[in-house]
Amino acid sequence: MSKSVRNYPQLAKDILEAVGGDENVVGVTRCATRLRIVLRRSKPAAKDAVSSLPGVITVVENNGQFQVVIGQHVGEVYDHFAGLVNVDTSSEEDEPAQNGSIMNRIIATMSAVFAPFIYILAAAGILQGLLILLTLLFPAFLETGTYQVFSFISWAPFTFLPIFIAITASKHFKTNMFIAVAACAALVSPDWANMAARIADGEVITFLNLGLSETVYTSSVLPPLFLVWFLSYLERFLNKRIHEVVRPLFVPLICLVVMVPLTLVAIGPITTLGANGIANGYNFLAENAPILAATIIGSLWQVIVIFGVHWGITPMILANYEQYGQDSFQAYQTIAVIAQIGAVLGVILKARSKETKKVGISAGTTGLFGITEPAIYGVTLRFKKPFIYGCISGAVGAIVASFFNPYYYAYAGLPGPLTIVNGINAGNPTSIWGIVIGSAIAIVLPIVLVQIFGFGEDTAKQATDEKKTEATPKPDNPTSANEETVAAPINGTILQLSEVPDDVFASGAMGKGVAIQPSEGKLHGPFDGSVVMVAPTKHAIGIRSTTGVELLIHVGLDTVKLDGTPFTLLVKEGDKFKKGDLLMEFDQEAIIQRGIETITPIIVTNTGDFSEVMIEEGTNSSVGQALMTAVK
User: Which residue(s) pair with 485 in the sheet?
Assistant: First the structure.
């Protein structure tokens, strides 16, 4: 684990430089401990470079994200990092990255939506737990105005949860925040709650002859999330088709009158049914096979945290509180968290190294607040054995707790030692005892295991030693080549970049290269390589050769205005291709009829990585002939 750092602006700059600079960053978000960066293309050396920076605990590449684990100071680093990158939250071109599987994209979305306000929910949950404790000690407090004020304060973030989701989801899906908030505020309107209550009592209320359901949306997750997702497409559609003079008025108007009724009629009932169905599936397992449920959550929850995919479970947990006012998942989750704290305590007691003890105390302290990433990456996973002991102890503690019918009765944003009181309920007095006993086992058992079996070797030190070995000079091996030839991808007439009627390309600011006036609408692979970027409007493609030449091929000038209509892509991001393979077809006549140039710049965007980029002589290009050569 790297030493602590207070120079967060410098750390942000160092991270940005290591991942490839501003031009390689598509988006950035943060959670409780991680800076989550979406990159246009991965850099093999970035992980090691960032991991070695002072203040960085480790780096995890997962879910299409480059996740920099920093710990409790991630907010300061994020603020400075966000100020360094040119990621426009309102720009259509900066849509969320579409890389990775559907599951990865869902989890990434959940992280982006919930991470910014998770501490608000955690604070409200702790306040609810304190109120439970106070009313247990002083029953008369329940009847006071003081209790009532604190009670509605603690419930407010959950009551108006759709509005929080509107704010963060609108940033993630790149849509107007104020339209999203207005639409989601309508979902939690008291007027709709009254209408839903009348429907529940048997009254039939319709909208345009379509029956409305009794679903209410306070504390809901998926209905506002899907509302904002669909809104992002509707808003972009309208912005392209409504004149800019009336756009500021009519786009919000149409969005509201379409999206709110659509959610009440279809989106809300369907997504609510889905969330409740998943929650009921878990509840069936917890009620009919509690030992199995406890074993799975107690042993594997921290494994899920390692990969940063734990946000995906949030809708299910919130659905349980919304439907039943209780949830057993967070009871077992708390025990799993405490088990990792116990493993850290075991290492602190066993270790002789002052540095290891110091790191353990720091990491263990954040664990008290339900944040275990520093404990995992800084101590337990670093030594391997303590992490395993923690998982075993979490499972044993959760299994013992399962015999006491454990539940949480107030949502805990960050389950941990401070939220154990959320398990207190007069109607289920064994619940809190089960959680307390399970937690006691979870914290004591790993301490005992570490004292008996030790905590293993420092894998971080081993990795450092391996790097030093790898860095030892080796005999020079002659390379097979130190240059890469880029073939012509299009038939046509060759032009110098200076002849291109576009200042950005003509100046060479984007890199060296040439341009071609196409004679036919076919684009072929200029070398063996892979696709690293495809413009949303299909008019430009970024490719990389197997030896590292990065090429931008921009078909036409200002063709972004055509919204992809004349272009047919035959490849997608991540695809590999061979020299000469057909990558794209485009309708030249359709482009020309719109009064747009078809001149196609071909740019080596990483010109700086080469000592020289030599342009071949000639005026005519034919697919496959040498166009230019990049020399290392």
Answer: 629
User: What is the token pair recorded at 282?
Assistant: 């878990």
* Residue 216: predicted pLDDT: 87
Separation of alpha carbons 596 and 148, rounded Å: 66
Shortest CA distance to 451 belongs to which of 345, 583, 328? 345
CB of 271 closer than 8 Å to CB of 222: yes
Q: How far is Cα 303 from Cα 310, in angstroms, rounded to an integer? A: 9
Decide: helix, strand or coil at residue 496: strand
436, 406 Cβ separation under 8 angstroms = no
Contact 393, 106 (CB under 8 A): no
pLDDT, averaged per 10 consecutive residues of the chain (632 residues), comes to 62 90 82 77 81 81 75 78 69 41 66 77 81 87 92 89 92 92 94 91 91 87 92 94 91 96 93 84 92 94 73 79 90 95 93 81 79 78 88 96 94 86 92 96 96 74 45 39 80 85 71 88 91 84 87 84 84 88 89 86 83 80 86 76
| Neighbouring C-alpha atoms within 13 Å toward the C-beta of 545 | 20
Taking alpha carbons only, the member of 356, 383, 370 closest to residue 305 is 370
Q: Are 29 and 94 in contact (CB under 8 A)?
A: no
Answer yes or no: are the C-beta atoms of 109 and 96 closer than 8 Å.
yes
| For the chain, counts of helices (H) and of strands (E) | 23, 20
Q: Match 């805990």 to its residue by tokens.
A: 412
Two structure tokens written together for 399: 């299994």
Cα dihedral across residues 214, 218, 220, 221: positive or negative: positive
**Cα 390 from Cα 381, distance rounded (Å):** 10
- Give the whole-angstrom CA distance, residue 567 versus residue 590: 10
The per-residue pLDDT for 475 is 39
**Residues marked as catalytic:** 31
* Degrees to nearest 5, angle at CA 114 with 170 and 192: 65
- Let me know: does 567 contact 582? Beta carbons within 8 Å: no
pTM: 0.55
Half-sphere exposure of 571 (CA within 13 A, CB side): 24
For tokens 């008369």, the residue is: 140
d(CA 22, CA 588): 33
Q: How far, in Å, CA of 308 to CA of 398, rounded?
A: 22
CA atoms of 196 and 212, how far apart (whole Å): 8
Report the alpha-carbon distance of residue 23 to residue 10 in Å, rounded: 19
